[in-house]
Write a structure and sequence with these properties.
Blueprint lengths: L1 H12 L3 E2 L2 E2 L8 H31 L1 H20 L4 H29 L2 H28 L3 H18 L7 H5 L3 H15 L6 H10 L1
Antiparallel strand pairs: 1-2
Length: 213
């Protein structure tokens, strides 16, 4: 929320000349604070709506496809914010970023909980939260000192594109796949086992676990 507030404050306090389109009278005077408050609340509104939609989608369609869709919405939101030439376009960008971003963060921990066990789960969970906290501090500092707020959004867009590319290597969680297709679950377990240099499992072993579940 701090990052969103700093980005919107920069957007609303800059000279109102964007791509040759004069917006004088839209953000001047008392209306500035009013619009700023609305825009700041849109990212929270998007997060709340996404909280109810994406978990249902993840349970019925899969964790991986839900992660791809969530990051897709977030990416579109970043694009809208980067190209915004008025408060409404920025508002749409903020809403989409909240809508997809919060769900993507939640799904990160779903992947960790369903693909890792023992100490590895603890290490990855703590690591994600530590890097998230560090990035929050760094981005806030950069936003405070950078003169043109659009540069920070462009940097965010570049990072978002890299994350979207990484989805190609993302593996569906065995917990979800086990409830849909046992043979594919065996393939999935063995793929993970190969990456982690662990012994492969058989169909009967997976079936035994499934029946206990």
């Amino acid at each position: 929320m701090y990052i969103a507030r700093r980005r919107l404050e920069a957007f609303l306090t800059q000279p109102t000349e964007y791509h040759g389109l004069r917006m004088a009278g839209i953000l001047d005077g008392r209306s500035n604070e009013y619009i700023k408050s609305i825009l700041q609340s849109l990212i929270a509104l998007g997060s709340c709506i996404g909280f109810f939609i994406f978990p249902y989608y993840a349970d019925n369609k899969g964790r991986k496809i839900t992660m791809v869709v969530a990051w897709g919405f977030f990416t579109v939101g970043v694009v809208f914010t980067a190209l915004a030439n008025g408060p409404w376009m920025a508002g749409i960008g903020q809403f989409l970023m909240g809508f997809g971003g919060n769900a993507a963060i939640t799904l990160d921990f779903s992947f960790i909980n369903e693909q890792c066990s023992g100490k590895a789960r603890q290490y990855f969970s703590i690591g994600v939260q530590m890097f998230f906290a560090i990035s929050e501090c760094l981005v806030g500092y950069v936003l405070y000192w950078m003169q043109n707020w659009r540069y920070t959004v462009y940097i965010m867009l570049g990072a978002t594109v890299l994350v979207n590319i990484s989805h190609y290597f993302l593996i569906e969680t065995p917990k979800y796949m086990m409830s849909k297709d046992l043979p594919k679950t065996v393939e999935l377990f063995n793929r993970i086992a190969k990456i982690n240099r662990r012994p492969e499992v058989t169909y009967d072993e997976v079936l035994e676990v499934y029946e206990k579940e």
